[in-house]
Backbone:
């Protein structure tokens, strides 16, 4: 399903510093349950059922959510149903893009809105929901069955609204944080609506759980790249356009989970690298120069799709001088050759790299990939002895924004 | 048009270390002409004229190009014509996305292809062009007037093909490198086809050239953030969905131009930071935790659009408990308040920031923004005494990829 190859010159990445004891710590940690999600079958069935119900009355599903409330669904859609026009995501409070996106939805009577917020109080999502609700009211289209709420089961501004207005709720289990919620209704409801096979996705997640040795190896290599090799930037270089969003999802998962001021003992937390998602071959034409010739502060994990080698159109007639080497080749072969050549070139520059290979862009492989990276980040949190499940650094800005708006003149 | 505010606690960023002498060096450097493009009126008129000609026979324009050959056009389209469906970009040799994108083009007899490569030998672009040519041939739709070639005026694989097949060419001047080519046919032809006013864009570019003091200030602040404050990551945090692509364009411009092994004297080149493009408010929900609480290795330049404050729907009825502060507020006000609050929060964490404010998302402002950032990067190249116009670090991978494909069995 997945394969990790350590290709770099630095043999230290092969050490297995993340061990069974960290795994045990992780799965016994109170209030942390993301790794158990593949076993909670009823949750997957509920998402499938709700998607089918919505489909009976609506042609399009629009997710209103931001960060962990949208990136999981966006990742699944981009990788597994990239041609789908049935699901859209409205995240930001950008006034230009909001207007354009709402207009582009067309006939709003055909649109079902899924409002997603774990805390139920995310001010962007609540504001966007208000604005859309007012558009629906102005067109006499506001009805409670146009909405589904996905949130914590407890009482919060979003669930209170749902309960007062008889709006259907799906719940994010209390032991699942926002950025670890892709295998709850957050990711699964839009995925099911777009026709993605949840059972196969779940099987991939289970594979990851059953391959503990692989997870310890992946976590060790990623951990050592910054703790031992002191690389301050972790490049996730995906050789697939459809994995670009996965890169953004991984960026959030890594950045919010691992960058902390203090550890679990309230002492200064260990240093961690910053994630930088890139796409190949595109970013060979933009950022490769810096990775190769800039400061040697980067470790690059190449994410490659094995099946691509035999895919794409075959070039019968290379047409251009100097392109003879492409005669009889498929486009996918060129992509793979460039990935390999880029890694070799980086090795020549002394930049350590590794490859995470997935068999194909299938629900099973995506399920395995997503669960493996969640486990890697969770395991790194254990070896760093930090709380990988809070985000104190984002709270201050939220409070300040409310204060600014409350105090300023209207 | 543009405004730069230094908001961080570090007063050292206010030093004007980039001076008139660096400006003079830049504009007198042989073979470097990007700053002169706003004065080359005939080039802008040629792009407008060619766009009009293509429009007479085709409904859609597809750019085949990668890196500097696509990012400039993509930046203009995303910021100034984001709703346009008339222009598409096919960049990568990803076999999945290639297939899907070509199928989505619909009636190929209505599509004009613009093949862009400064060197005329970019293997991804030539391969994609071959593949599309073979699709057109299979449908008996291949005709020379379906293509325009944008390249260097000299003889290269792309222009040779154009000349042999009587395909129209537009030229990138010899003193303009790929990543500095947005104000040539590379960016201007797709922009004109989408209806963007080139004359206003050009006026914005001219504004930037005429405001030398502003450019020295911008270049100084950006340069000092890594040379003096030793920040290894330069965050460009755009508070506009439509400036996301500008961030990717800036990332390329910075990374390829400034990260060099050796300087102009062939001595070890100075250290430079790595660019990280983010979007607000989205990335407050993903990367802010790391910027705030992670290692203090970041400088953040906030890119804000002043006109947004009065834009977007007004929230009449905040609906949700805790959202009362939004009553009577526009969505754009929330975006701006969040940008300001995030900067204040980062200051509290000791992260230095600055704001680059543009008046509005207009052709004039985009022209000024693009030229200002090009000038800043060029000026930083001068003070670093490096060649900001080559990219030796990307050549090795290209050679290796060709070798791999040539040597492997078919």
Residues:
């Amino acid at each position: 399903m997945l394969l990790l190859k350590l290709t770099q010159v630095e043999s230290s990445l092969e050490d297995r510093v993340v061990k069974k004891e960290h795994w045990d710590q992780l799965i016994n940690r109170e209030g942390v349950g993301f790794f158990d999600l593949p076993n909670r079958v009823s949750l997957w069935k509920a998402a499938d059922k709700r998607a089918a119900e919505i489909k009976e009355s609506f042609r399009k599903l629009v997710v209103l959510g931001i960060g962990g409330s949208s990136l999981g669904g966006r990742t699944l859609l981009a990788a597994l149903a990239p041609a789908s026009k049935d699901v859209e995501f409205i995240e930001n409070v950008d006034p230009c893009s909001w207007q354009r996106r709402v207009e582009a939805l067309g006939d709003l009577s055909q649109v079902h809105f899924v409002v997603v917020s774990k805390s139920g109080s995310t001010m962007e999502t609540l504001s966007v929901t208000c604005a859309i609700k007012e558009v629906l009211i102005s067109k006499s289209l506001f009805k409670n069955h146009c909405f589904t709420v996905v949130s914590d089961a407890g009482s919060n501004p979003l669930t209170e609204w749902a309960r007062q207005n008889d709006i259907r709720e799906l719940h994010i289990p209390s032991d699942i944080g926002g950025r670890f919620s892709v295998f709850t209704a957050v990711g699964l409801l839009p995925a099911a609506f777009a026709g993605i096979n949840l059972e196969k996705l779940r099987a991939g997640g289970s594979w990851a759980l059953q391959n503990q040795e692989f997870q310890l190896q992946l976590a060790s290599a990623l951990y050592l790249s910054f703790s031992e090799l002191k690389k301050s930037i972790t490049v996730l270089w995906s050789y697939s356009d459809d994995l670009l969003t996965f890169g953004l999802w991984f960026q959030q998962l890594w950045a919010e989970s691992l960058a902390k001021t203090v550890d679990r003992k309230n002492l200064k937390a260990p240093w961690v690298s910053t994630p930088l998602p890139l796409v190949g071959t595109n970013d060979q034409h933009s950022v490769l120069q810096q990775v190769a010739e800039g400061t040697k502060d980067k470790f690059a994990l190449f994410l490659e799709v094995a099946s691509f080698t035999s895919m794409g159109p075959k070039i019968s007639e290379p047409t251009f001088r100097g392109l003879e080497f492409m005669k009889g080749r498929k486009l996918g072969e060129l992509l793979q050759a460039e990935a390999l050549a880029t890694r070799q070139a980086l090795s020549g520059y002394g930049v350590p790299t590794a490859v995470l290979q997935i068999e194909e862009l299938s629900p099973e492989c995506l399920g395995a990939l997503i669960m493996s990276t969640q486990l890697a980040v969770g395991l790194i949190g254990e070896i760093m002895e930090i709380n990988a499940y809070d985000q104190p650094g984002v709270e201050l800005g939220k409070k300040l924004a409310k204060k600014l708006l409350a105090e300023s003149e209207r």
In short: The two ends of chain B are 57 Å apart (CA to CA). Chain B touches chain A through 123 residues (CB under 8 Å).
